[in-house]
Design brief:
By secondary structure, the chain is an alpha+beta fold. Helices cover 36% and strands 31% of the residues. It has one domain (3-77): Alpha-Beta Plaits, CATH 3.30.70.930. The protein contains two helices and four strands; from the N terminus they run βαββαβ. Strands 2-3-1-4 form a four-stranded antiparallel beta sheet. Strand 2 and strand 3 (43-48) form a beta hairpin. The longest helix has 17 residues, at 49-65. It is globular and about 35 Å long.
């Protein structure tokens, strides 16, 4: 199983005041068993490919339902074969 790194920016962005759409995205990732690392420009998580794929769907829907206007998503393979 490949390990992936997911990086996401949930908009609109308010510095030092993450809105309900950001909290919903973080909660969705945590519900999938991931540990989000919220940075100044994006939130990142790492996990197996299936776990990240499931979390991505859950996070996307949760954030949009909570008011997100856009999500910038980057996924990269974090392991080496």
């Amino acid at each position: 199983m490949r390990n992936l790194r997911l990086e996401v920016l949930v908009e609109p962005v308010k510095e030092h005041e993450p809105g309900p759409h950001v909290h919903a995205a973080l909660a969705a990732l945590e519900q999938e068993g991931l540990e989000p690392d919220m940075g100044p420009f994006a939130t990142t998580v790492e996990g197996g490919a299936e776990q990240i794929a499931s979390a991505l769907s859950h996070m996307l829907l949760s954030a949009i339902e909570s008011g997100a206007t856009a999500l910038q998503i980057r996924v990269e393979v974090s392991d080496e074969r």
